[in-house]
Amino acid sequence: MANLSDYKNIWVFIESEHGKVKNVGYELLSVARKLADEKKCGLIAVVLGKNVEKAAKDAICYGADSAILVDSDEYEEFSTDAYAAALTELVEKYKPEAFMIGATHNGRDVGPRVACRLQTGLTADCTDISIDEDTGVIVWTRPTFGGNLMANIMCPDHRPQMGTVRPGVFKKNPYDESRTGEIIKEEIHFAKDKIRTRLIDRVEEIAGGVALDEAEIIVSGGRGVGSAENFAIIEELAKVLGGVVGCSRAVVDAGWMPQVHQVGQSGKTVAPKLYFAIGISGAIQHLAGISASDTVIAINKDPDAPIFSVADYGIVGNLNEIVPELTKAFAAR
Ligand code: FAD
């Protein structure tokens, strides 16, 4: 068993691809900053990629005390083998107490592999992180039993304590340009012939659009929209507002929209400034994906629909009448 007292500081993985940083890393720095202050330990961003020195500086402006930077050709494109090897090597060298990774496709891939190589535990797909007052151990919270229960999971006997955390759950701290910190440059090279996967093609999730988890305005439709054709009224409102179209799972199951638009527990967790829930009842699995939204506006013909209990503004009525009127009113502004 590891000597637990050798392990110090909280790490956050800053994921990027082709130099473009995913927001979730910076979001995690905000919760990690709070935990690091509580534990009185350092907060270190781990930045891996190509041409990502700016991301290391930005991570410090978003709350990290310092950053470890591995910047080289091998990491321009995500590769499970190279990323898992590099992160494992860094953990073995520096021994962090906790390591947080965004639950993106790549984060979900690499996180468990690193944990396995280090013979430690990992809690996947968390929606909250805190510290157990009595033991100082990190408490990783994640939905279970179809989102009906929240499980609190701890890893008391192994280090680092690892978890993947859903994008959109935490808000980034304000960008503070006055923050300074050391950027430690590490050289870790991985022979190309050891990489067992090959990238054949890249397909953008939503052609020409913004991904749901990065969107500031989302207009989501549910079963109440009635048909694939009628989704045109949702798309028009989204277009006028410069937003992205989302939907409930019922809509995906009915084949009205592709799964990439689904919001909720088995879809995307989102954190827009403005979220429209139109013809969506507000099932717990849908609400699990929208809790970090700043403002929720619900439109539903049923005044008792559960969505109204989480909405900041609610309109009771027929969406087929209300949505085109809203679109007209916003277009006129
Ligand atoms: P409904 O519940 O059928 O609601 C339709 C609403 O539209 C009603 O409130 C109705 O009053 C209103 N309406 C109807 N006509 C009109 C009209 N003309 N004008 C105004 N309002 C109207 N769901 C998700 O959304 N995302 C997930 O990620 C997700 N994951 C799940 C994971 C698991 C393991 C399980 C078991 C379920 C999951 N679900 C998820 C499904 C979830 O339980 C609900 O079934 C689903 O969210 C319902 O979608 P809905 O609100 O569009 O449909």
UniProtKB/TrEMBL annotation:
Keywords: FAD, Flavoprotein
Residue numbers binding FAD: 223, 248-249, 262-266, 279-286, 300
Co-factor: note: Binds 1 FAD per dimer.
SMART domains per the UniProt record, alphabetical: ETF (SM00893)
SUPFAM superfamilies, sorted: Adenine nucleotide alpha hydrolases-like, DHS-like NAD/FAD-binding domain
GO BP annotation list: fatty acid beta-oxidation using acyl-CoA dehydrogenase
Database matches in Pfam families: ETF, ETF_alpha
InterPro entries in alphabetical order: DHS-like_NAD/FAD-binding_dom, ETF_a/b_N, ETF_a/FixB, ETF_alpha_N, ETF_asu_C, Rossmann-like_a/b/a_fold
Gene3D superfamilies named among the record's database cross-references: HUPs, TPP-binding domain
Requisite cofactors: FAD
GO molecular function, a single term: flavin adenine dinucleotide binding
Superkingdom of the source species: Bacteria
Family: Belongs to the ETF alpha-subunit/FixB family.
Protein name: Electron transfer flavoprotein alpha/beta-subunit N-terminal domain-containing protein
